[in-house]
Amino acid sequence: xxxxxxxxxxxxxxxxxxxxxxxxxxxxxxxxxxxxxxxxxxxxxxxxxxxxxxxxxxxxxxxxxxxxxxxxxxxxxxxxxxxxxxxxxxxxxxxxxxxxxxxxxxxxxxxxxxxxxxxxxxxxxxxxxxxxxxxxxxxxxxxxxxxxxxxxxxxxxxxxxxxxxxxxxxxxxxxxxxxxxxxxxxxxxxxxxxxxxxxxxxxxxxxxxxxxxxxxxxxxxxxxxxxxxxxxxxxx
Length: 236
Known about the structure:
By secondary structure, this protein is mostly helical.
C-alpha cells in the first residue's frame, strides 16, 4: 500500500508538471494571438516577424509535452479518470499548437496587407468584434482548463455562436465592399483570411472547453447538437 501511495503521489506530481507547461504554452499562444491582431491593426512588420518566429517555440513545446504525456502513460499506466485527463491534455496541446498556427497566419497576412499600401476600408474595425470575442473565448478556455471548471467550460461552448455570427457578419460586409469597389478585392480577401483564422481560434478554444467537460464529467460532447438545435456544435 505504501508503494502504491508513493507511486500515486509521483504520478500526480508528474501530471501537474505537464499541466503547468500546458498552461505556459497557453500563455504563449495567447500572447502570439494578441500580438498578431495588433500587427493587423497597425502594420508592424517587425512584430509580425516576431509572431512568426515565436511559433517555433510553441511547436517545440508541443513536441516536448507530447513526449512527456506518452512517457507518463507508459510508466504509470493510468486508468479511468487519470487516463481521461492525460488523453484530454494531449488534445489540448494539439489545439494550442493550431492556435499558434492561426496567429502566425494572421501575422503573415497582416504583413502582406500593409506592405501593399492602399486598403480602401477600415480593415481592423471589420474584425475588431470577432477578434475580441475569440480572445475572451481563448482566455476563458485556458482558465477553465487550469481550474477544471466544467460550468465555465459549458458557458464557453454555448457562447461559441457569437464568434460564428460575427464571422458571417464580416463575410457579408466584405462581399459588399468588393462588389461596390473592385479595387478593394485584394485587401478584402486578406481581411477575410484573417477573420477566418480568428474564427478557427474560437473553434480551438471551444475544443479545449469540450475536453474540460470530458475530464470533469467523463462525457465526450463533441459533435453533439446544442439543446433545441438541429445542427452540430463541434468542429472535431
